[in-house]
Design a protein that fits this description.
Elements lengths: L1 E7 L6 E7 L9 E4 L3 E7 L4 H11 L4 H10 L7 E6 L5 E5 L8 E4 L3 E6 L5 H12 L5 H14 L9 E7 L7 E5 L5 H14 L1 H5 L14 H14 L3
Antiparallel strand pairs: 1-2, 1-8, 2-9, 3-4, 4-5, 5-6, 7-8, 9-10
Helix pairs in contact: 1-2, 3-4, 4-5
């Protein structure tokens, strides 16, 4: 009932997950990222513990393959689960349970993986892959969204549409993007609109917030506005 992409942007080092489904509030349960650890998406019959437990394993240095294996091995409901993961070294692993509803499957490339279940057909994933690989010139967030929209055009979740989410982490311990559409007739289109809104001011304001290099951030309002204006002029995304 869901498909998603986990990716690492080679040019910026950012890590992102985009997901869409005919399910309420997917962004609250499916995608999980921790800077310095990795990323996990838990799907089909969602097991919310996969997120917290999986990130703890990845954060301790376990590989994506070991993490996926450990999570599913200890879960009696694993045949109804689907998940994929990326570890801190950028390696990917995935699992699709035998009881997941067709069409279902997963596939990994060097810098990203895709997984989906209860889809209209295999073209949902193949089109997501094709467009993500083709749109290398797009900024990372828009590249992820373009890929997901291509999967939707290929049929998406065969039950319809309801929610979508986009999470992107950079080098900070909190997200650069955490955008969620919980209940909407066109969730991916609405998610793309929110990403446009974020580029107007949020991403520029975010640059001046407390960070690893500047723990207190910038609090001088006049200087803050000047730097936001400069960031906008530079076309930062």
């Amino acid at each position: 009932m869901t498909w998603s992409i986990i990716a690492r942007d080679e040019s910026t080092g950012r890590i992102g997950i985009a997901v869409a489904t005919r399910f309420f509030a997917a962004g609250g349960l499916i995608p999980h990222i921790e800077t310095g650890a990795g990323a996990i998406a838990t799907q089909a019959f969602i097991n919310p513990h996969y997120g917290s437990r999986g990130l703890a394993m990845l954060g301790a240095g376990r590989s994506a393959a070991d993490t996926v294996g450990a999570l599913t091995h200890g879960d009696e409901g694993r045949h109804n689960r689907q998940l994929h993961a990326m570890d801190r070294a950028g390696r990917f692993a995935a699992y699709t349970g035998a009881a997941c509803i067709d069409w279902c499957g997963h596939e990994a490339r060097t810098t990203f993986s895709v997984a989906g279940n209860m889809l209209a057909g295999p073209a949902v994933l193949s089109e997501t892959i094709r467009v993500y690989e083709a749109e290398i010139s797009l900024p990372f967030a828009r590249r992820l969204l373009a890929a997901m929209l291509a999967g939707e055009a290929a049929g998406g979740d065969k039950r319809g549409k309801q929610s979508a989410a986009l999470i992107i982490h950079d080098g900070e311990n909190y997200p650069l993007y955490d955008l969620r559409v919980d209940d909407h007739a066109e969730p991916l289109s609405e998610l793309a609109r929110l990403e446009q809104v974020a580029r107007r001011r949020w991403v520029h304001f975010r640059r001046q917030m407390p960070s690893r290099l500047r723990p207190s951030g910038l609090t001088d309002r006049a200087e803050l506005e000047d730097r936001i204006a400069q960031s906008i002029a530079e076309g930062y995304e």
